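For the sake of transparency, this paper describes our internal protein records without simplification. Such a record has a labelled line for the sequence and another for the backbone structure tokens. Nothing more is needed to write down the fold, since each code stands for a local backbone conformation. For reference, a complete record is included directly beneath this paragraph.
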Amino acid sequence: MKSIGLEELKDKYIGKPGTPDRDQYEYELSIEILAEQIKQLRKERKLTQEQLGELVGVQRAQISKWENNTDNVTIGTILKVFNALNAKLNFTIEKKEKVRLRQRAK
């Protein structure tokens, strides 16, 4: 099973950096917010970074990196972390009316 990075997913489904949809997305849901939520939920659950790491299957240092937003993380890993914290994470995908295809230059 191939994993795909968060940046690749954002580029594919939201748009490249600098586009209006991407800017709006970045404003509403940034990795910093997710990182803070991981840290806050971990503390509410009275777990150390080491204990959360054991639940997720990573070292304590990796949890620290995620909480401090200093490391890239895949959506799959984010889902694992929130699952370990017994929390649900929702993503909203807004579907537009039509897909616009670009014509290739011949």
